Amino acid sequence: MWLLYLLGPVLFCCVGSSIPVSQKLFGEVTSPLYPKPYPSNFERTTVITVPTGFRVKLVFWQFDLEPSEGCLYDYVKISADKKTLGRFCGQLGSPRGNLPEGKEFMSQGNKMLLTFHTDFSNEENGTIMFYKGFLAYYQAVDLDECASQSNSAEETLQPRCQHLCHNYVGGYFCSCRPGYELQEDRHSCQAECSSELHTEPSGYVASLEYPQPYPPDLRCNYSIRVERGLTLHLKFLEPFEIDDHQQVHCPYDQLQIYANGRN
After folding, report:
1. What are the respective helix, strand and coil percentages of the chain, to the nearest 5?
2. Fewest Cβ atoms nearer than 10 Å: which of 42, 103, 166, 249?
3. Beta strand spans in the chain (E)
4. Does the model's pTM come out above 0.70?
5. Over the stretch 20-37, which tens digit does the pLDDT of each residue have?
6. Higher pLDDT, 38 or 128
7. How far apart are CA 186 and CA 65, in angstroms?
8. Contacts 24+ apart (CB under 8 A), 68-77
9. What span is annotated as the signal peptide, if there is one (predicted)?
10. What is the rounded CA–CA span in Å between residue 195 and residue 97?
11. What pairing do the DSSP bridges indicate for beta strands 42-49 and 111-118?
């Protein structure tokens, strides 16, 4: 009697509770009292959290819950990224229920919720049944932030890189194409062509992204210097396209050439 009196408050305190799992790279989650039969009239949500930059992968190794149509009585519900990944119940060999056997569950972020719910009894045709519950293992899997950023249809939890994205285990970093500088937010790029110097006897000078459209808000200075005694010959290749106006001479975008102090 004393034992039952002490166990009652312990089980009751866990109904509708939420238990966080510390940020480990791997671990296990079980039903209460596993592998002994789990209690009735019980609900608990386990929050699995792995370090930032990783995803949660969950696999069930043992699963033995009361089977029912649509898993209305006892069930395990898996959620991640504000979505339900599945609701499961049943046991091996049972035609009813929905088993997670052979399935891997993966989150997009670094959290996954596992809700375990039981009704008031476990009976079948008047016979009390004893179900063991479940045993599941989770592990942290590196999140390829760059792959998720390249998929425009997929919602990403991280800011997008404006130009180039580089993934590493546990995180990522951004870089810019030549002619641009990475800004303080570490994601956006701004054109930097304020002081380019060319000293080769021959070569090419081009606007940023040429022959693709050049970006807005540019102020580029290209200096060409050769040895004293030599002259410079500058020839423009096709296509040559700069924003113009039919009535006003170069009011918007313009290219100016200076030589010997003359424009």
Report:
1. 10, 35, 55
2. 249
3. 17-21, 26-30, 42-49, 54-64, 75-80, 83-88, 104-106, 111-118, 123-124, 127-128, 133-142, 164-168, 171-175, 180-182, 189-191, 196-198, 222-224
4. no
5. 776 789 999 999 999 999
6. 38
7. 49
8. 68/96, 68/97, 69/96, 71/97, 71/98, 73/118, 73/119, 74/117, 74/118, 74/119, 74/122, 74/131, 75/116, 75/117, 76/100, 76/114, 76/115, 76/116, 76/117, 76/134, 77/114, 77/115, 77/117
9. 1-18
10. 70
11. antiparallel
Question: Which tokens hold the place of 72?
Answer: 């209305």
Residues 237-244: what's their mean pLDDT? Answer: 90
> Does residue 78 contact residue 58 with C-beta atoms inside 8 Å?
yes
Backbone angles phi, psi at 192, to 5 degrees: -135, 100
Question: How many C-beta neighbours within 10 Å does residue 56 have?
Answer: 25
